[in-house]
Design a protein that fits this description.
With 625 residues, the protein is an alpha/beta fold. The chain folds into four domains: 206 residues, 3-Layer(aba) Sandwich (Rossmann fold), CATH 3.40.50.300; 204 residues, Rossmann fold, CATH 3.40.50.300; 77 residues, Arc Repressor Mutant, subunit A, CATH 1.10.10; 82 residues, Arc Repressor Mutant, subunit A (Orthogonal Bundle). Helix content is 44%, strand content 15%. Strands 3-4-2-5-6-1-7 form a seven-stranded parallel sheet, covered by helices on one side.
Length: 625
């Protein structure tokens, strides 16, 4: 009997030991939920997941490609950060803005997570090399980069030396929303994925209706991933639409809202809104309007300022920092175009006011989603006027492509000075030579690229400043012929160098890209790749304002002239934009439930009797009943 008890004790000891009979850690046999909670607490200090987070994390760790549609402000970043820290190799995170990447990296480091890095165009050579060295030492689990960085052949070769556990595209709606018009590098992510062959691909967004999801997957050519949607509804955001006859009435409504201590004039119960810090954003459609509204508020004693893309970078930074400053020296209100918002993670924004319609419900939901991230009540007011629709229809008409203009624009690019099939041309030059505005030009370049007549690469500097690294003699001549020729041109006397080659003194920009092309006998793309490789290898550091579009011509304009309007599909743009605007107007004119319209647009199931219970319409109906 004692032998049996001894045997049972031995069995218990085995079962309770750190390894099982196979020699594997018992952690491998624990339920995934337990393992994840331990990791969650270890890395982030949380004791539980928010709704939907665990399912996404488990899918990634199980090796599934994921398309996650997750509400703004509900912790979607953790859904890829946690598995990245648990996986064996590096995770690449594609993010649209340097400020957004920097905020996430800083937040992780503040939590004691240092296996994270950011590589961007503002870094010095030393900073860039330091991060690459950390990558080679396997010290980095999360690497944040922009899509443009991946168009560098040398950088892609560096990444390709490592197994990529996870490839994340944050704010994935940018592929469809920006890729075709303003950020063509997003369209090249498919090629990057083909080269790097990541084990898992994960897409994250807060706003992507079914047709946009399909478009994103078509662009990336990813087999149908597992779609995990948590829904777009956030009950703490109180949606209100106020009808107005004109701008004068909008000013009256705005002032009343901001000054009235009794919010009963609004058809909604505001909960704790009036007892919270009253930080807010007012979105306007035009730059001039942001300045006028900010002036209106300043004259009435509000701590307000305006923000738009026309401001100098230091001015934009000043306004953003002041908005985050909760002292008496900070700002309570920023009046902005849609240039302000992505990457603004201020938890206590109590209201978002839209001075006019947005062009799409996606844009509207992205912008109102910046309020109430602390999960306290926040108010989202749309000041609607029937004339607002006409403004958007004018924008659509002005930017719409047509065959005649596509042909004109292609000929402008063809006739511009270049090297081989490549042209470098500024936005200002394109606008002047084509007699069109920037938005229409980018839309039409997108159409020409879609039709196979050209390819937009990255932006390149019109003029270069170069600093030579003092130790280039020790490294010897570059092995690659183009690099040797390029280095010879740069140090051949036509560039005036600083007295001490290893100092940070800038060299006057005396070379243009085209001059280097002519001297070396290569096209602009090869020149830029050569410069990047010389910099990566430590021979030089170069810099310059990236103010030129690099365009590769693939077919001539004569071929375009033979295509019909139907083949070019010029009407698709207008139909798509008009349909999106129509849905925004439907939201503004809805009489039953605001959230019902939004849920239906984003493809979420909506019962016939569904009511959110929190918007102005639902609360008005509740009072009347």
């Amino acid at each position: 009997m004692s032998n049996l008890r001894d045997l049972l004790k031995e069995v218990d000891a085995i079962l309770n030991s750190e390894t099982d009979v196979s020699g594997l850690p018992t952690q491998a046999c624990e339920p995934p939920a337990d393992r994840l909670l331990v990791a969650l607490g270890t890395h982030f200090g949380y004791t539980s997941f928010r709704k939907g987070q665990r399912e996404i994390v488990e899918a990634i760790l199980d090796g599934e490609n994921v398309f996650a549609v997750f509400p703004t402000g509900h912790g979607k970043s953790l859904c890829y950060q946690l598995p990245a820290l648990m996986l064996d190799s590096v995770t690449i995170v594609i993010s649209p803005l340097i400020s957004l990447m920097k905020d996430q990296v800083d937040a992780l480091r503040e939590q004691g997570i240092h296996s994270v890095a950011l590589i961007n165009s503002t870094q010095t050579w030393e900073e860039y090399q330091s991060e690459l060295a950390r990558l080679r030492r396997n010290e980095i689990k999360l690497l944040y980069i922009s899509p443009e960085r991946l168009r560098s052949r040398r950088f892609l070769d560096i990444l390709n030396a490592f197994p990529i556990s996870l490839f994340v595209i944050d704010e994935a709606h940018c592929i469809s929303q920006w890729g075709r018009d303003f950020r063509p590098a997003y369209l090249s992510l498919k090629d990057t994925i083909d080269v790097l062959q990541p084990r898992v691909i994960a897409l994250f967004t807060a706003t992507a209706p079914p047709e946009i999801q399909e478009d994103i997957l078509n662009v990336l050519n990813i087999p149908t991933p597992r779609t995990l949607a948590q829904g777009i509804e956030r009950p703490n955001l109180k949606l209100v639409v106020q009808q107005n006859e004109d701008d004068d009435e909008k000013y009256q409504q705005l002032e009343r809202f901001l000054t009235d201590e009794d919010p009963n004039h609004l058809p909604i119960r505001l909960g704790n809104l009036k007892t919270s810090p009253k930080n807010g954003i007012i979105y306007a459609g035009r730059r001039r309007e942001t300045e006028e509204i900010a002036d209106f508020l300043q004259r009435r004693g509000f701590r307000a300022d305006f923000y738009h893309a026309g401001l100098e970078p230091h001015e934009r930074t000043r306004v953003q920092e002041a908005f985050f400053d909760n002292s008496e020296n900070g700002l309570d209100i920023v009046v902005a175009t849609n240039a302000f918002g992505m990457g603004i993670d201020k938890p206590d924004i109590r209201y978002i006011v839209h001075w006019t319609l947005t062009g799409t419900l996606e844009e509207y939901c992205q912008e109102v989603g910046r309020a109430g991230r602390d999960e306290e009540d926040a108010l989202c007011i749309l000041l609607f006027c029937n004339d607002d629709r006409g403004l958007h229809e004018w924008f659509i008409k002005e930017s719409a492509p047509d065959k005649q203009f596509l042909l004109k624009l292609l000929k402008v690019v063809e006739n511009f000075k270049g090297s081989e099939k490549y042209r470098t041309i500024s936005n200002d030059e394109l606008e002047w030579m084509s007699s069109a505005k920037g938005t229409k030009i980018h839309v039409c370049l997108s159409y020409l690229e879609k039709l196979g007549f050209l390819k937009r690469w990255y932006n390149v500097p019109s003029q270069l400043s170069v600093r030579f690294r003092g130790f280039w003699v020790e490294k010897g001549e570059p092995a690659e012929a183009t690099q040797r020729a390029l280095l010879g041109q740069l140090r051949g006397g036509k560039f005036r160098r600083s007295r001490h080659h290893d100092h940070h003194d800038g060299v006057p920009p005396q070379k243009t890209i085209l001059e280097l092309c002519e001297a070396v006998g290569e096209n602009p793309k090869e020149i830029m790749e050569g410069l990047a490789e010389l910099q990566s290898d430590g021979y030089i550091q170069y810099w310059g304002q990236e103010d030129l579009l690099l365009i590769e011509l693939l077919e001539d304009s004569q071929m375009l002239s033979t295509l019909t309007d139907e083949q070019i599909e010029v009407g698709d743009y207008v139909r798509r934009k008009q349909s999106q605007l129509d849905q925004m107007v439907v939201y503004a004119l809805e009489t039953t439930c605001r959230m019902r319209v939004i849920r239906g647009y984003f493809g979420e199931p909506v019962d016939e009797d569904y009511r959110c219970g929190t918007c102005d319409l639902c609360q008005t109906q509740a009072v009347s009943n």
